[in-house]
Amino acid sequence: MKKPKVSVIIPVYNSEEYLRHCLDSLLCQTFGDFEILCIDDGSTDSSARIIEEYVSSDSRVRLLHQENKGAGAARNYGLRESKGRYLLFLDSDDFFEPVMLEKAYRTIVHYKADFIVFGCDQYYMDTKEYVRNPWVMRTEDIPPYMPFKYRQLTGNVFKTFVGWAWDKMYRKDFVISHNLWFQEQRTSNDLLFVFSALVVAEKIAVNRRVLLHQRRGTGKSLSVTREQSWGCFYDALLAIRKRLEDEDIYWELERDYINYALHFSLWNLKTLAEPTKQQLFDKLFEEWFDELGVTGKSREYFYDQAEYSEYCEYLNKR
After folding, report:
1. What CATH number is associated with residue 180?
2. Cβ-Cβ contacts under 8 Å for 95 (sequence gap 6 or more)
3. How many domains does one find in the chain?
4. Cα 257 to Cα 281: distance, rounded to the nearest angstrom
5. Spatial separation of the C-alpha atoms in residues 91 and 222, rounded to whole Å
6. Is 213 contained in some domain?
7. pTM over 0.90
8. Using one digit for the tens of pLDDT, what is the confidence trace for 140-197?
């Protein structure tokens, strides 16, 4: 049996409300040589039954089951079972432009890239507005030529692209040869995969056209999960640093890394509710900021002075 060019890997957990829109927007793509691997992560709603309907009507759709282990484990399962030469890791509540696969595939093949990043926006359910945020892809930091490596990026390497997997297409041989896997933890499980790929890739390219719409305001955010697993981001940051050390490039990227560690720590602190927020606050200032290399750095060390001032304000509240 002929192998598909692209494997689309989708973790699914209680996504019945938006799953049909997600799958329909994939099955009407202008590019048809792909498979969809839906990994049911122990859903308790009708998600698995919905996928079974699609399996019975389209041979490109496959359904895999696992106990509830989270999106990281589901993506790894899909990666192991995938047959395509290129990989997309999508979310089950998002939806896509009809040309997404065609444009992404053509870009990665044209530039013979290890991975590409494509444009996305956020669709707000309450207002039905599409909003494109500049921080998702900092185009001013990307060189005017392609392909490129991380060394050609002019800003903080870890803030040029967001550390999520779903706006990127990867060459599977590249992923396997560099032993890239998702952390099997509840949240921040794609950070290690994305940033490891970023620093080991020889060829990166972008397609700035909006190809994916991230659904916001579904009422199924990660907030509850993050309250229960508020230390996952720290584990991800430590794993990234180890990867940089293993690649013998931490010395080169240390300042970028520490600046990103402060940024991501502050974001997690600001977006948690009490009493978890206080637990994280105590942990950061008693131990984690020191371990991450933030403590003791001068104001001039930090690229974003607003973030450094925010850090100082928290520090003064101790």
Report:
1. 3.90.550.10
2. 18, 21, 22, 25, 123, 212, 213, 215
3. 2
4. 20
5. 13
6. yes
7. yes
8. 999 999 999 999 999 999 999 999 999 999 999 999 999 999 999 999 999 999 999 9
